[in-house]
Amino acid sequence: MDSVGVAAAAPDAGPGPAWQSKCPWGAPSTTSISCSLADVMSEQLAKELQLEEESAAFPEVVAAAEGPFITGENIDTSSDLMLAQMLQMEFDREYDAQLRREEKKINGDSKVSISFENYRKVHPYDSDSSEEEVDWQDTRHDPYRADKPTTTPKRGFIGKGKDITTKHDEVVCGRKNTARMENFAPEFQVGDGIGMDLKLSNQVFNALKQHAYSEERRSARLHEKKEHSTAEKAVDPKTRLLLYKMVNSGMLETITGCISTGKESVVFHAYGGNATEDKVIPPECAIKVFKTTLNEFKNRDKYIKDDYRFKDRFSKLNPRKIIRMWAEKEMHNLTRMQNAGIPCPQVVILKKHVLVMSFIGQDQVPAPKLKDVTLSSEDMKKAYYQILHMMQRLYRECNLVHADLSEYNMLWHDGKVWLIDVSQSVEPTHPHGLEFLFRDCRNVSQFFQKGGVAEALNERELFSAVSGLNITADNEVDFQAEIEALEKMNEDHVQNHGKKLSTFSSDGDPPIYDE
Ligand code: ADP
Ligand code: MN
Hints:
The chain is an alpha+beta fold and 515 residues long. Among the domains are: 164-227, no CATH class; 234-366, Phosphorylase Kinase, domain 1 (2-Layer Sandwich), CATH 3.30.200.20; 368-499, Transferase(Phosphotransferase) domain 1 (Transferase(Phosphotransferase), domain 1), CATH 1.10.510. The protein has helices at residues 19-22, 37-57, 61-64, 80-107, 124-130, 132-141, 170-180, 202-234, 237-248, 301-305, 311-314, 319-339, 377-396, 433-450, 459-467, 476-497; strands spanning 157-158, 165-166, 252-261, 265-272, 284-290, 347-351, 354-358, 361-362, 365-366, 410-413, 416-419. It starts with 18 loop residues before the first helix and ends in an 18-residue tail after the last helix. The structure holds adenosine-5'-diphosphate (ADP) and manganese (II) ion. Adenosine-5'-diphosphate (ADP) binds at residues 259-260, 262, 264-265, 267, 286, 288, 345, 357, 359-361, 366, 369, 409, 420-421.
């Protein structure tokens, strides 16, 4: 009521109504009487009349803001037409629901079905916007309905005049498309578009659908490839045959399982079988299968190519045979170490790229790597000195540098350290032998210094203690330079004399030759 401001000028309406005197807050001042009841009533009536007229002239103006359909909110029930339309829609939906039930009853699960589609009052597209929930339900349970050839609905549109909405309506289709994204493979990320009122154009949706399908196919292919290659890398049929033969011949009792799968090899545990006249088989064995896939071995060329022991053979070999050479190399190196009394696996047999050796550990449980075991400070110190002596023996008696020595390739078993993984070990006069040794020394020195062994030499001291070489540099850079100069000297000697120096030894030890 807008008349409050002018109320004071209005003629007095006589004594106030009876309730005024009973009012607990006392009688209001006379100025507050805005206007007579009759005035109010007539004003209200005029307003109502106008509204009614307006809605009669433009029946759908109110709803048009939200689209031509009744949306849950803003339902204006002031118009009879609107009410009638709502009732009609409700009826139509119920009618269609009944129709669907009948359709289902008639068809059962027969392969050929009769469609009552044409008899529906409300086409699925129409119902979409009339009730948001129906939209979700429908699309979830029958997402690709639109892709099937459907008969033209009786009424492919709703609304009238300029507000007509067909099944091709952008908004309606857009919402539908968004909902259909839920039917993509679960691993296909569609973001949270499904949860909001996102409208995907047909073009975008189709592109997405295509992408989802090809992603699905791609991941299936990848998975297949991965499975295939693992089987191939670890034990290909030829390797399996080799292993079967070992069991069949009685050399091995059973192969129990895999201990480790590394980049270059797979190690299995096996129980030893019967001894032959020339061989005693250990009760438990480790089988190291060198992978026959070449990728991983490419960067290891330098270890073997420059190893004079394999020099003239290298060029003639195909990649497959080079892998066998790794196994062969590990066998030779282990034998040398065994002969020098260094704790390491004992070689049982070598067949192609499969090396059988004694198992370090017990009851199928391999000994822990030094990096995985927690030693008392006493044991730590003991382990350090043991390794120092092993490195010296390896260098002097076996004429070898481990070249991959670290807490990863040392096992703790029976209260002592065992060296494993010597396929890459080289002789000290290998063109990079001293560099490899220096790297080994750095690993060992760092491990024990971090492990709290106060007596542990630093990497340069350790290098000198192992090699006996007298390198005077007091910093790492110069030290490395001197090492490389020595290696160069050796290479020059090979060039000039066609034969390598026996050792680098500079302290008057007799040169150590092997083979
Ligand atoms: P890789 O080149 O894959 O590192 P390794 O020779 O180091 O090959 O063997 C991998 C792992 O298998 C080792 O870390 C060790 O745990 C286990 N292993 C290898 N040989 C033996 C063995 N003789 N006894 C017990 N475990 C072994
Ligand atoms: Mn290893």
